[in-house]
Structures are given as C-alpha cells and as structure tokens.
Write a structure and sequence with these properties.
alpha/beta; Arc Repressor Mutant, subunit A; D-Maltodextrin-Binding Protein, domain 2; 2 domains; nine-stranded mixed beta sheet; 12 helices
Length: 348
C-alpha cells in the first residue's frame, strides 16, 4: 500500500544581526556649568518674542540691582518668580547667565554678553519708537521717573505743571514712577534704571545734568508733643539743649552742615520723610522736615517748629538726567519743566 504523500513545507531562515549587549558604562555628564553653557550654545538661535523681552527685562533688572533679592522691589514680584524667569531665559537661549547661591550673585561671561546685547536691543526699540513718532509728528516712548517721597505735599511745584503739559502735548508718552532714596535715584540715573529723577542735591555729580525745580522748599526743625522742648519759647531753646537731645538725620545729608552751627547728636538715620515724622511723633527725637509735609501735624497740634528764624533753610529739588543720553520724550519733559519754572518765577 502506497502511503499518503505529505505536503512539503519550505522554511527560509534569515540571519539577523546579533544584538550587542549594553556596555556597562556610566553616562558622562558635564559637571562644569560654564562648559555646559558652551555645549548648549550650539543650539539653534531662537527667534525673539514678546515673552523673551519680558524675561530680558527681568534679567536686566536683576543686574541693575545686583541680585535676585534686591530686584524684588523694582519688579514687584517674588524672588522665586525672578529665579524661575532667569532659569527660563537660560533654557530659552541655551546659556548659563549667572551664578547664584551663598556666595552671592555673579554674572558669567555669557551673562555679560547677553546683558550688553539686551541693552542694545531695548535701545534700538526705543530709537525705533522715536523714529515712528517723528514720522507721525508726535513724541512717544516711556519715561522711567524716580522721585523722593513727600513731593505731593508741595504746592505750586513746577514739576506738577511739567507733567501736566507732557500728558497734554505728548499723550503717547507713558510714565512709570517710583519712590526711592536719593542715593538710589542718583545711581539709578547713572546706570539707566531711571531716565530722570527728582531729588535734592547739594553738589555737582559727574555725568549728570540737573534742572532746579521751583519753588524752593522750606525745611524746618521739629519736635513732637511730649518732647521737653515742645512747650518752650524759642528764646529758651539753646544750642546746648538741641545738641543734648536725640536727632534723626537724613542719610543723604551726611557731612552737610545745618544752620545755626548746631552739632546734633545723631541717634537715627533714614531717607524717608514718613520715618522722620514717625520718630518726631514719639516725643523723643527732633528732625528736619519740609514745611508742607509737616503742616498736617502742626495744624493738629502734635508737632511744632523749633527756632524757625535761625534754624530753618530753603532748598530746591532738582530733576536730573544722564548727560548726552536722553530720549526725545525725556528731552520734552525737561523742556516742559524749564517752561514751567519760568511761569512759576513770573507768578511769584
């Protein structure tokens, strides 16, 4: 009997490449952030968007203030938000911008280069806005204005008129104002944080142009109710008595002599009028205040002026700018102030 024929199946074998066993090697990581930044810089250069401009402005504020913590006041955001923004900027542009930690804030060379480039970028943007304004016969841009506290209490101040005219004649100009100490205002104008600043100055500052603001502001010596001198007649208040009581001094007037050749016993220091007023109201300190600023407390009987005839003095506020580095909007504000000063003198 012939057996049943079975079907023949053909199989084809294909030789596959052998898989290599993974090598037992540790992943090499770069521990040097500067070296890593050199590697990261090979990334494609990204286009610049509005979000990048916001991050760059935060970075420039950190540099101006010398660190994350100091920049919080100017930016009005938390230190953690600033840190996140700088981190996002580093990722965005692929470079390490700064070292921060217990040793403090320090820019890397990439940080210095990016800061310089960002400064040029914002200057070009401002120049572009100014050119567009010229085409349209209008003044535009933004003015960063820093002022000392207490200015709003001064009546008929030419600065107020200048800002009014600026808003009427150049409505496309935006204003950003901030109260700051005289020392910070000067350094802020010098390093570009402020375009203009308003403050009392008592000496010529290199690289700074100034315009006096009318009228001069009278400054008087005050004590508060409860102070031993509060109920005394001026004739009974001697230099010796003034020198023996605690005096609250203004930091920016350090080394400048006061009227009457009185050698005050400085026991507190501040740049803020509110702080000086608070110390006077304790009944333990005497201090100088602008007369318009102190008028409220004098009228309610909680402060009095001491020896007004020989211890009071008058001083101008000044508007200061950087020499040769003013935008069209800033120049227009200076012109408005000069015109307002002439009107103030004519009305006097």
């Amino acid at each position: 009997m012939v057996g049943k024929q079975l079907p023949i199946r053909l199989y084809t074998y294909v030789a596959l490449p052998r898989e290599r066993a993974p090598m037992n090697k540790k992943k090499v990581t770069n521990q040097n952030p500067r070296l890593q930044s050199r590697i990261d810089i090979q990334k494609p250069i990204p286009s610049v968007h509005d979000s990048d401009l916001r991050l760059l402005r935060i970075f420039m504020a950190v540099v101006r203030n010398g660190g994350f913590s100091a920049a919080q006041t100017e930016l009005n955001i938390s230190q953690s938000s600033i840190s996140e923004s700088i981190g996002a900027l580093e990722v965005r542009f692929g470079v390490n911008l700064c070292d921060r930690g217990r040793s403090g804030f320090r820019m890397t060379q990439h940080g210095v280069d990016l800061h310089d480039a960002a400064h040029s970028l914002f200057q070009d943007i401002e120049n572009f806005q100014n050119r567009i304004g010229e085409f349209r016969n209008e003044i535009s841009g933004r003015i960063f204005l820093g002022i000392v506290d207490g200015i709003a209490t001064i009546e008929n101040l030419s600065l107020t008129r200048a800002l009014e005219v600026l808003n009427i004649e150049a409505p496309a100009v935006d204003l950003e104002l901030r109260v700051d100490s005289p020392q910070s205002l000067i350094s802020g104008v010098q390093n570009g944080r402020y375009d203009v600043a308003v403050l009392p100055i008592f000496r010529k500052i290199p690289g700074i142009a100034s315009i006096a603001i009318n009228p001069p502001v009278k400054q008087s010596l005050y004590c508060g109710i409860g102070h031993p001198m509060f109920g005394l007649a001026d004739s009974a208040i001697t230099n010796e008595a003034l020198e023996s009581t605690s005096f609250a001094a203004r930091k920016h007037m350090e080394g400048r002599p006061y009227p009457g050749k009185v050698k005050y016993s400085e026991r507190a220091w501040t740049n803020d009028m509110e702080c000086l007023a608070t110390l006077i109201l304790t009944g333990r300190f005497i201090a100088y205040l602008p007369v318009p600023f102190a008028r409220l407390w004098v009228n309610e009987g909680s402060m009095r002026i001491l020896r007004s005839k020989d211890l009071s003095y008058s001083a101008n506020l000044f508007l200061i700018t950087r020499v040769g580095d003013c935008s069209n909007a800033t120049k227009f504000l200076c012109n408005c102030l000069s015109s307002a000063n002439k009107i103030a003198v004519a009305e006097k």
